[in-house]
Amino acid sequence: MDAEIREMNLQNPDEFEQWRSFLAGLGIANFTADEVDPLDGTIGLFEGDRLMATGSYSENILKYIGVCHKTSENGVYFNKIVSTLLTILGQQGIFHIFVFTKPQYSASFQHVGFQEIVHSENAAFLETGPTSIKDYLAGIPKVEGVSSAIVMNANPFTLGHRYLVEEAARHSSHVYVFVVSTDKSLFNSQERLEMVKAGTADLENVDVVSGSDYLVSYATFPAYFLKSDTNRVRYQTTIDALIFKERIAPALNITTRYLGTEPHSETTNVYNEVLESVLPPTVQVEIIPRKETNGKIISARDVRLAIKDDRLADLTDLVPPTTATFITEHKVELQARIRKGMKIDGN
Amino acid sequence: MEIKKTAMDGTLESSDIQITVSKGTDGVQIDLTSDVQERFGEQIKQTIEKVVKDFDVDNVNVKAVDQGALDCVIKARTITALQRALGTSAEPAWEVL
């Protein structure tokens, strides 16, 4: 029977139900709003009215790929779905595309030109397009000898972050600071990168680089294909840790990773725990206790609350002058983003 | 000629080839994925390279994902991808065809 590809509208309850029950039959069980709402588009491959294959995309990530092989030769519908998604994204100017999937499907994606970045027991992370992690690593400045590294979101860059960088810089010949790129924070990735650069400009052995798409953020990691949502942070962090250990550290000769503690965040605790179990002995993990001022730990969250409540005088104790200047200059815009609904109470 | 933007043509369906061309700095670099790589890999690359040369493009990265395409398909897909990347889709490239 001829198969036809159509766009699907998941806002339509009937189509949503057809899509959901099709994927549920393939073992995908998670259709929470957290997972489904960020989808930018969904396509379905139909034989008459019967859904035989589907795929979705969210920014540059393919999601909810599901194919029924009963009536087609192996791979035909899968290739058609992936091909159509790549064409749709290509028309939007998006060519560098990622997918998280179960490890057993990695080979299918590699067959259509994807390259595996890493895989863990539970998930594989692949990319395709004109650039790859190799190009990303080639673009980072290289230094003689070994380096240490810190990964931060810096939303925004506080005296706590500064303290962590200083400690690492004092105990290492060279430090890379990777700034997470995902734009799900009050300060966008460009702003955060600039603040970290400005706030560490006086430290000669520190290079600040963008984490690009390779420091996986909790915000982009999909959980729909995992058995349970409760281990999501652990799965995501394992992929993140493996990319660091297997791809980034060897290319840049990084032997130590510095972490900050976060007494009030369960997510950060899990993250640190996973890094400590995955990274050594390739990369040593050093944990630096959180900096305090006036008996209280410095938190980027408090900075965001101060911006929201227009208490800019409070910033002096929390952020370096470079960050304070940035916030003062961009106060109106930042407050507008908060009013528009940007969440600021996470960590 | 200079590649102006990244562009793609073709599909991942059987007997087709998906060609993505983007700016390069190091001559003509071809990254080929194909089931028939061992037997026909060189020939596929030569076909692509010939089209690139005919367009007078010196630096370009080509990603080719082949599903068993015939020579004429490889040529057609490469021409279209290059024309999109060069911004010349409206002008037929007679000298290449």
TrEMBL record, chain A:
Keyword Plastid: no
MF terms in GO: [citrate (pro-3S)-lyase] ligase activity
Pfam families for the chain: Citrate_ly_lig
Electron transport keyword on record: no
Reactions the enzyme catalyzes: holo-[citrate lyase ACP] + acetate + ATP = acetyl-[citrate lyase ACP] + AMP + diphosphate
EC primary class: ligase
Xref: InterPro entries: Citrate_lyase_ligase, Citrate_lyase_ligase_C, Cyt_trans-like, Rossmann-like_a/b/a_fold
Residues in Citrate lyase ligase C-terminal domain copies: 147-327
This enzyme's EC code(s): 6.2.1.22
Ranges annotated as spanning the membrane: none
Keyword line: ATP-binding, Ligase, Nucleotide-binding
Role according to the record: Acetylation of prosthetic group (2-(5''-phosphoribosyl)-3'-dephosphocoenzyme-A) of the gamma subunit of citrate lyase.
Protein name, as recorded: [Citrate [pro-3S]-lyase] ligase
Species, as recorded: Fructilactobacillus carniphilus
Upper classification of the organism: Bacteria, Bacillati, Bacillota, Bacilli, Lactobacillales
Gene behind this protein: citC
From TrEMBL, chain B:
Keyword hit for Phosphoprotein: yes
Residues of the signal peptide: none
A Pfam entry, by short name: ACP
Protein's cellular compartments: Cytoplasm
Residues that bear O-(phosphoribosyl dephospho-coenzyme A)serine: S14
Lineage: Bacteria, Bacillati, Bacillota, Bacilli, Lactobacillales
Keywords: Cytoplasm, Lyase, Phosphoprotein
Described purpose of this protein according to its UniProt entry: Covalent carrier of the coenzyme of citrate lyase.
Protein name per the record: Citrate lyase acyl carrier protein
Protein family per UniProt: Belongs to the CitD family.
Keyword Phosphoprotein: yes
Organism: Fructilactobacillus cliffordii
